[in-house]
Amino acid sequence: MNANASSSAANTVARDKYHVYRPLLDLIGHAEGTDRKRGYNETLAYGAFTGGDVNLCAMTLKEIDALQTKMLRHPANSFNSSALGRYQIVRTTLRAIRTSLSLSDNALFDADMQDRCACYLLGLRGIDKYLSGRLAEDTLIDNLAREWASLPMVSGKGAYANQNVAVRTEDVRQALAEVKKRHAAAQPKREIVVERKVEKPVVPVTVEAEIRKKTDQWSWITTIFGSGGAGLAALAGMDWQTVTAIGALALGGLLVALLLRRQIVCAIQDVRKIIEG
């Protein structure tokens, strides 16, 4: 994704307050059949009980209530329904929403209000519990089918008799998967810093240095005494075999000291590596 596309996507999310729920809202608009015609301005039976097309988005909630009452009184309304708007909300449900959300009679029934009302109904049916892992997906699907008759239950059938569903159960699952994905992406990222206590090494580093120091001292002492002993032997008039033997002993002592130091230091380093991991 290039920078412009990424910026455009971010702006879309910022403008749409209901971005997380939009996949499900769009599915409902499709299933209810309103998106095929006038969407947010559509009424039951495409204006058959309202005297033709009406501009719902420009009407107040009080005016919408009066229009729904008119629809229910229409002699040809065999459905006995007042469903209108993109999400086909009936009068009884809309009145309950207005009371619960303390909506003003003068508030417009525009696209934003209709989205808000639909999301409120999604909440009542358990969408937020589902997103938090407290409600099974199958249970939510059946709940949604009871709110919108055009949506199928898990069985693939409608929740009400003589009601044909407009989409498949798999379509609902796909919409929910996208809702869940968007919800997860919108969550704040938290970084937890874990302080690690650094324990004091079991084998101090100074031990190795001290061993090197001590063995160096013994090397010097061995060298001095060995050389001195050989020199004194020569001055004392000892034969060359004795002088050579004393020198060889001194050299042997020096080599032993150096080898022991190397072995001890290597052993300490191995122990430290094992302990400190």
Describe this structure in words.
The chain is mainly alpha-helical and 277 residues long. It has two domains: 16-185; 205-276. 59% of the residues lie in helices and 0% in strands. The protein is rod-shaped.
Query: What is the CA-based Rg, rounded?
Result: 43 Å
* Terminal residue distance: 43 Å
**Unreliable residue runs:** 3-9
- The residue-averaged pLDDT reads 83
Q: How many discrete structural domains?
A: 2
Q: How much helicity do the residues have?
A: 55-70%
The major beta sheet can be summarized as: none
The number of distinct helices, counting runs of at least 4 residues, comes to 10
Shape: rod-shaped
Strand content: under 5%
Query: Structural class, from helix and strand content?
Result: mainly alpha
Counted beta strands: 0
Give the SSE string.
HHHHHHHHHH
